[in-house]
C-alpha cells in the first residue's frame, strides 16, 4: 500500500513537471454595444458585437524545448455575440478594391506557429500587420471604438501566409520584419508584401516607424494599382496626468512606372486623460489626397471608458467624419451600415455620425 502511494506521488510529481514545460491558455473578449449611426441619409439603432474591440475566442500555447528555446502557437477566431455566429476574417480583394469576408477563415483573426528564444521570435501563418501592431499602441482608442485612427489611416489589420521575425528588446529598442508570400506560380513577387518596423519603448515614451510595400493590390493603399507603399510614424508620451498621441502616414500607389494613382497624407493628434477608474479619450485626424480632387476628410472622436474590474469595463464614444464631395470615409469600424447591413460602405460628400455605449469583458 505504501509503495502504491509512493508510486502515485512520484507519477504526480513527474506529471506536474511535464505540464510545467508546456501550457495552453483559452482567452477571449465578449463585447456588446448599442449603436446609433447617422450616415447623412438614414439613421438606425442597433445592438452590435465588437464595438470597442472585436469579440473573439482564442487558444495560445507554449512548450519549453530547453536551452531557452520555446515553441508557440495562436489560434484566434471572431465571434458575433449579437447572433452567436462565428465571424470570419476579412481580406483585401483587389478586384473589388475593398475588404471582403474570407468565408474559409475559421481562425480569421490569427493563426500561427513559431519559435522564440534569446534570438527573438519567428512566426508563420495569419498574423497582424506591423502597421496594426504599431497603431494598437499609438491610437488613443486602441484600434477600437468608433473613430479609431484606422478609419482614415490605411491600416491593414492582418495578412495570411505571413512570416514575421521580431528581435528581442534591447535598451528599449526592438524591430520586426514581415513578408507575405503571394503564392503565384511563375512570379514569386506577385501579391507579396514586405514590411519593416522599428520601435522604442521605455518609461513614458513610445515611438514606432513602419514601412510597408505591397504588390498587386494586396493593400488598400494600392487598390487597383500594382504597388502600394505606406510609411507610418507615431508615438505617445505619458505625462502622468495625461498621455499625448500623434501619428503621420504617407500612402502611395502606382502602376509600377510613373503613374501615381494614389498619394495621401494622414495625420492624427489625440489624448488620454485618466479620471478616477476611467479615462477620457479623444482624437482629431485629417486625410489629404494629393492626386484626387475634393477627396479630403476630417474626423473627430471623443470617448470614455470606465473599469469595473481588471477585465470588465463600460464604454461610450461619439465620432464624426466630414467628407469632401469625392471622399467616402466613415466611422463604422466593426459596425454594420444602417442601410446595407454591410461593414464597408460609401459616404461620398456626407458626414457620418456615430454614438455608442456598451460593455466589454476579457477572459
Notable traits:
363 residues; mainly beta; Porin; 16-stranded antiparallel barrel; two-stranded antiparallel sheet; 2 helices; 20 strands; 56% strand; globular; disordered N terminus
List the helices and strands and how they pair.
Layout: H1 2-21, E1 22-38, E2 43-49, E3 56-66, E4 69-80, E5 85-87, E6 89-93, E7 98-102, E8 110-117, E9 120-128, H2 130-138, E10 158-166, E11 173-180, E12 193-202, E13 205-215, E14 227-238, E15 243-254, E16 260-275, E17 278-289, E18 297-307, E19 312-323, E20 351-362
Give an account of the 3D structure.
- The protein is mainly beta and 363 residues long.
- It has a single domain (23-362), classed as Beta Barrel (Porin), CATH 2.40.160.
- 8% of the residues lie in helices and 56% in strands.
- The protein has two helices and 20 strands.
- A hairpin with a 6-residue loop joins β10 and β11.
- The protein starts with a helix and ends with a strand.
- It is found in: Cell outer membrane.
- Residues 7-325 form the Porin domain.
- InterPro entries: Gram-neg_bact_OMP, Gram_neg_porin_domain, Porin_dom_sf, Porin_Neis.
**First-to-last CA distance:** 43 Å
Instruction: Enumerate the strands of the largest sheet in spatial order, edge to edge or round the barrel.
Output: 1-3-4-8-9-10-11-12-13-14-15-16-17-18-19-20
User: What do we call the CATH homologous superfamily?
Assistant: Porin
Q: Based on DSSP secondary structure assignment, what is the total number of beta strands? A: 20
- Major sheet: size, sense and barrel closure? 16 strands, antiparallel, barrel
The stretches of 5 or more residues where confidence is low (pLDDT under 50) are 1-20, 92-100, 220-225, 333-346
Find the CATH topology: Porin
In terms of DSSP E residues, the strand content is: over 45%
User: How confident overall, as mean pLDDT?
Assistant: 83
Give the C-alpha Rg: 22 Å
Q: Roughly what percent helix?
A: under 10%
* Global geometry: globular
Order of helices and strands: HEEEEEEEEEHEEEEEEEEEEE
GO molecular function: porin activity
Pfam family, one: Porin_4
Subcellular location: Cell outer membrane
Protein name: Porin
Amino acid at each position: 500500500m505504501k509503495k502504491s502511494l509512493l508510486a502515485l506521488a512520484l507519477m504526480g510529481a513527474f506529471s506536474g513537471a511535464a505540464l510545467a514545460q508546456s501550457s495552453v491558455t483559452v482567452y477571449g473578449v465578449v463585447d456588446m454595444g448599442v449603436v446609433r449611426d447617422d450616415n447623412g441619409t438614414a439613421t438606425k439603432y442597433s445592438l452590435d458585437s465588437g464595438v470597442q474591440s472585436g469579440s473573439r475566442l482564442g487558444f495560445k500555447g507554449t512548450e519549453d524545448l530547453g536551452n531557452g528555446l520555446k515553441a508557440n502557437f495562436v489560434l484566434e477566431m471572431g465571434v458575433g455575440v449579437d447572433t452567436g455566429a462565428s465571424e470570419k476574417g476579412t481580406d483585401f480583394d483587389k478586384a473589388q478594391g475593398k475588404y471582403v469576408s474570407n468565408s474559409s477563415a475559421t481562425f480569421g483573426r490569427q493563426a500561427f506557429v513559431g519559435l522564440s528564444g534569446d534570438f527573438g521570435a519567428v512566426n508563420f501563418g495569419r498574423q497582424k500587420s506591423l502597421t496594426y501592431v504599431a497603431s494598437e499602441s499609438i491610437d488613443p482608442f486602441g484600434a477600437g471604438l468608433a473613430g479609431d485612427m484606422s478609419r482614415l489611416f490605411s491600416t491593414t489589420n492582418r495578412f495570411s501566409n505571413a512570416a514575421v521575425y521580431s528581435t528581442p528588446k534591447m535598451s528599449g529598442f526592438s524591430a520586426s520584419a514581415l513578408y507575405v508570400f503571394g503564392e503565384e506560380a511563375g512570379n514569386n513577387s506577385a501579391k507579396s508584401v514586405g514590411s519593416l518596423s522599428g520601435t522604442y519603448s521605455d518609461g513614458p515614451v513610445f515611438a514606432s516607424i513602419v514601412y510597408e510595400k505591397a504588390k498587386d493590390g494586396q493593400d488598400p493603399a494600392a487598390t487597383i494599382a500594382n504597388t502600394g507603399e505606406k510609411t507610418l510614424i507615431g508615438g505617445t508620451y505619458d505625462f502622468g496626468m495625461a498621455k499625448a498621441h500623434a501619428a503621420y502616414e504617407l500612402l502611395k500607389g502606382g502602376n509600377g512606372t510613373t503613374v501615381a494613382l494614389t498619394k495621401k497624407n494622414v495625420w492624427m493628434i489625440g489624448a488620454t486623460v485618466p479620471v478616477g477608474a476611467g479615462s477620457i479619450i479623444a482624437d482629431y485626424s485629417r486625410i489629404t489626397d494629393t492626386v484626387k480632387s475634393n477627396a479630403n476628410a476630417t474626423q473627430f472622436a471623443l470617448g470614455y471608458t470606465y473599469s469595473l474590474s481588471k477585465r470588465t469595463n463600460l464604454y461610450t464614444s461619439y465620432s464624426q467624419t466630414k467628407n469632401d464631395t469625392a471622399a467616402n470615409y466613415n466611422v463604422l469600424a466593426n459596425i454594420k451600415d444602417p442601410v446595407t447591413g454591410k461593414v464597408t460602405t460609401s459616404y461620398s460628400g456626407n458626414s457620418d455620425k456615430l454614438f455608442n455605449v456598451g460593455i466589454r469583458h476579457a477572459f
